[in-house]
Amino acid sequence: MHRPALSRRGFLLTTAGAGAALGLAAGPAVAGTRPRPRPFGRYGSPAARRTPKTLYVDPHGRGDFTSVQAAVTAAEGPGWTLVLAPGTYRETVSVDAGRTEATWIGAAEDPRDTVIVYDNAAGTPRPDGSGTYGTSGSATTTVRADGFTAHRITFANDWLRADHPGVTGTQAVAIKVQGDRSAFHHCRFLGHQDTLYADTRDLGHFARQYYAHCYVEGDVDFVFGRATAVYERCHFRTLVRTDLTGAPYGFVFAPSTAGANPRGYLVTRGRVSSEAPDGYYKLARPWVPSSDTTARPMLTVRETHLGAGIDAVAPYANMRDAHPWQEQRFCEYRNTGPGAAVTVPENRPRLTRAEAASHTPQAYLGDWRPYDRRR
To answer: Is the pTM of this model over 0.90?
Structure first.
């Protein structure tokens, strides 16, 4: 029996039970309900600043700023650190390309306690009457700068289809990341459609991104984009959909790797679980956007546990028949679980051991080694 999915808004307002379902530590999932006596924990405070370039954000007024965007605006130039006290920051945040080498730290040890969330969708009308936001404009957080790092923060978009039955643009991005050397450690990404947009600033910019020990959930193409991105020891969870009566509910990955880029998405030592019925999700489909019809989407999933929610018979599908998935760069290696069962070999392209040696974090990220850092 499959339990019903919680909406993003419901999840953020729920207590310990939801966290247990995700394998997280027990404790309230609601962020910032009770101010803590030391909101910044071991990371100092405005009175005991870690460095001259450290700013403190607290929704209860005990930091330098009460909003993340205000702190980002004040942090001009490279090398700033933002320490975020536990709380819910309901706002959109944008980091422009000039604010390089920024670090954001959730002061709580549990990323559920520090949440940046908003509820725009692609079809949401802009307040100035200039049209709708579109997919990119729907993002709660947008990071264009190189060298961005985040620790123990939840990035969410809690826009719900059920609340807006007349809206057709249902993409609702939690975070769009475009910079090179962007790293996320122990972070959470919550949404439904198009949750995590791992992208680049332009076609010629091969941005490298690294996600370690992260949790991502959604339903349609909820990990997508053009970046060279490594997902190491991450948990991807597919959601129940009440607006559909049959499979497929959606697709976990939708890479749009540029044809000239030798590295796309690498998923390694992770897991894919589901709240939906068995076989109701595809593992991936290729996104060849109209803006780049020469794209050759690339995805390698290796040594990852694929739960029963993944359709083992036909794990891949086309987004457009003109660009069949078989002509893209999709591969697997030594995956486990019921969703990894090879029942139709031609539907499960697999790497040899020799080929797998070039599909590692080291090979994808080159001279950048974010996996060696510990906090």
So the answer is: yes
